[in-house]
Queue: 4 jobs
Job 1
Amino acid sequence: WQAPPLKSSAKQTQQFLDNLSFQLTHAQQRVINEIKIDCANNSPMLRLIQGDVGSGKTVVSAYAALLALSSNFQVAIMAPTELLAEQHLRNFSLWFEPFDVQIIFLTGQLKGKQRQQALEAIADGSAGIIIGTHALFQDAVTFARLGLVIIDEQHRFGVNQRMALRDKGQHNNSKPHQLIMTATPIPRTLAMLNYADLDISIINELPPGRIPVVTRAISADR
């Protein structure tokens, strides 16, 4: 399989970084460079971003979205709950404010005329970023030029669900790049690392001022 090479210009990259209200950590910059290298190739990226809650996985995924948008491709961002999808909508709307990009929010709650307008914008390519829940891989959803799929909390989705969204970007011999995020790798995720050609990027640094996450093992009798 092939995938569309995704790149952004130095001007677009600087515009994106200047619009952030914070500095990226060294770990975030390292992971961004790994994603840039993957996306510049014409073979599909399949990369896992692993990092504690608050480590800044979402803004790294937003940079990946910038690569796709700059290359005239659409981005689909799938979250397991409407609450999480709404958080992504707020963040991506803020971070991409300087860019002329239409962001569509698609969940099961969207009905009637609003839903029809959203589906038309996705199908004709006028929507650049599409954020939603399981609604993204329903039969009625057709993407014009899907170049990147971002899946948050990938352990909350089944294999077939992830593949259904990826296949919506299939065109001739081409498939979209995939970026998946998790704070809590489960055994299936570890199996994917071993057997499914999944690359991993770890954000092992918290932004300044964040309270460190403490992980403890507690015995069963407690």
Job 2
Amino acid sequence: MRRKPGADEEIARLYEQLRGQFSTFVCPFEDFRSSYPVHPATLSLLDGLGDLFSQHRGIVDFVYSRIAGDPRRNIGGILDRPASELLGPDSIYEHFARRIAEVSAFQAYPRRIVPHLDEAINAAIKIEEDRALARRLVRMLVLYRIHPTAGTPNVSQLAELASCSLGGPSAALNARFVAEAVLDPLVEASRFLTKSLPESGDPLQAVYRLTMEEDPGKILEAR
């Protein structure tokens, strides 16, 4: 990518803004500068999933089309979005959903679990912007489930990955919104999403996980 004059100064400003809004954003500036507008975590996930998606052709196509856009495939490029929006991990799922469905170990996610969760999102969450955020978070959680080594991010990390900011330097407020307004209602509405707290009981460190088997307790309660 060829950047316009003054781009480095703007990228540095965005970097400091992200550091102020998200306590989990610890990426070195040079790494952020070289990968912008792709979130560094997106590249890390791609690296670990390279064997699944084709190390060369598939990943190059993903990076190019998701940055520049591809009208033939109805893909909007990230360059058309506000400068503060990064290409997050959910874009990996959107790009490779068909490939994931071809792998027997993972096909339940695009064929059964994600469609179920999308229905639960529409039923449990009323505001469309919050629904869109919930759909992005669900797709991120799928990728962390199928990744061979990556651990599941906590809710504070999810807020950062989704660039969910309510304005102002309040990392705690961003994480609380993702948990209380988006994911907690979905846990109540879905049999495939669970929530666990750390030993400290800190709600900002809560972990939400997708399961491939329905929660028997929720099935019993529903019936």
Job 3
Amino acid sequence: GSDHLRDEVESLRRLAGQVAPCNPRGRPTLRGYTIIGELGRGGMGSVYLARRESLGGRPVALKVMPASMGASSRGRDRFLAEARALAKVRHPNIVTVHDVGTLDERAFICMELVVGSPLDDVIEQQGRLKVLEALQIIDKVLNALDYAHSKKIIHRDIKPSNVMVGDDGLVKLMDFGLAKS
């Protein structure tokens, strides 16, 4: 929750050797991103709801490499592999990367914000999907994979938690952390 966000921001501040400025509402600002709150957490990092100030405050998803991986160049390289893999692809069913960067040993990826729920949450909340709805989601995921494969990128971690179903019905394949070129 908020304690984790505060710890991560403090860790980023210490790592950078500087104090990250705060905007007038007291929210931490990191390299032009105002961090609003945490969206989720996984083995390859935490994802925060943020605003990209250079784009007029556009809401984005900011994935930050965990502090525990900061000392490992292999971990950072693996994290950045996701960014490089995603940066090569432009497809309506694959999450778009806007920016990639590092803050000392901590890497981050700025991605489009998909407002919705991971497919595993949708299934848990709604129960079994209707056949047509399931087929439509599968078709979109397969189209995304076909495109990624045409760019010589293999996802290697296809599962419902890596498929976002937007509130607008758009399906996006995410989390290319294990991708291989």
Job 4
Amino acid sequence: ENFVVIGSKNNLAQEYNIPILKPQIKANTTLSNAIAFSRSNEKTTKGITVLDFDDTLATTKSLVKYTAPNGETGTLNAEQYASTYQDLAEQGYKFDFSEFNKVVDAKLAPLFEKALKLQKKFGAENMFVLTARPPEAQKAIFDYLKANGLNIPLKNITGLGNSTAEAKALWIADKVGEGYNDFYFAD
């Protein structure tokens, strides 16, 4: 059984040999900061645009490779992966995202034209790409967007390497904790 111990209780955790789950502590801290900011008297509007990459800004031919528990291999496109990964992972499937480090045969997705207009709304410095792709895809995404006229700073492209809604929600909550309070989000 795992326990989460926060704050000054860490010494007790060490004394009683209770494991501290660092990802859970980070999530708790992120949520605490977001709640604290949302309850503050800060009235200044700070806007942010957050867009997914796949099927929001671009459609690509990047595939996720998988190996089934029985050794069978295959591939899934982004849509197939998004709709089945939880079930497959629970069954023991292993995934290889190496193709998602690149932008393969990309075409502009429906929201791209709107994104060009949105970069003027809060400014390019407050526009972010938040993707389940691995962090290694950052530069390839940056190059693709820039070549098509979307000038988001490289540091504003975040590859979570995680497809869960919780991962994106925690990232958004972290931005609330940074003072953002007017969101445009598309995924």
